[in-house]
Design brief:
This protein is of the alpha+beta class and about 350 residues long. It contains 9 helices and 7 strands. Keywords: Membrane, Transmembrane, Transmembrane helix.
Length: about 350
Amino acid sequence: MITQELLGYIRGETAKGKTREEIRGVLLSGGGWSEDDLSEAFREIIPMQGMVLPNPVAYERQGEGKPVEPVSSLSPSPSLSSFLPSSSPSVSSSPSPIRSFSPSYSPSSSLLRKSSFSEPAPSSHRTSSLLKFLAIFIIIAGLGFGFWFYRSSIINLWTSLFSKISSPSSDLPLNTTSDTETAAPTFPIAVTPPVIETINCGVGTAPKLGNPSTYENDSVLACLGANAINCKNAKGVLQDNFFPTIFEITKSQDSCNFRLSYPADSALIDITGKQLAGQYILCPIDVVKAIDNTKPATPKFNAPNKADFSEYASDVYFYGTLGLFAENNLDMAKIQALGCSGEYIQSVIASYKAKR
């Protein structure tokens, strides 16, 4: 025989979302109810399964005439024995005794809380979730396409930034200190100039103008002539009683030059009485001309013969000591305009003028 307590219990469990088989299994195993009682109870409950039960609902206990207190999470949980009939099979005209569950069954106190059917999730929530998923998918797809399309530029930019971070910038000072640190004093670093090798051509005798035997096959002159053509630093000494004796070939950034000078300990003086020690003349090698002294009154100036090294060195020596002044009529401005310099130029011009 079913009771209102049994019906109320089934309704409460159904409202929680439990299936008929789950409720039936609990009542058969732990409540001592028969299959017929449960079938009758479910037949009475089934027409109401599609309805939302009012909450709280007052039920009257059979035979007592007292309303059942609404289920509330704030009220203490009553014993389950008040909901289920006793396991005693005896029947009398008095109200049926309440059966109790076996000790092995201890239902949760959540059975006594306010029951209600769980509301299904609104369709608008599912639509919102779908839109969020589509938005995230579109963003990720867009980023992936952008990276693939601009992958070369991105890789080059990353490589450039990484190289700048991993190596110090040349625009920044090497001695960098923080605001709280005091920079250590720095000292200028002495830069040692590169050693320029000068070829030593040795010591010989100065050639004589108009006398080829004084310079033909001369090793010192040949050495000086070869280095003059190749513009290599070289030095030789040509002994003479009047003219400069130190013959040098010097290479600069812009040109190749010859330099004729007196030694620092020379005792010679010019016609004006000026000391010649240390005086020199420096000119570009390409201004040199060969002197044709066949007619001394009207000498000619021709291109030098560079095939014969010793003859070419003699032409350099003759032109630097005499020919340069004769060709330019002792004009200081013309001589300097050729790129020549040195005190020897002034001494020669002063000596010629003093003889007149």
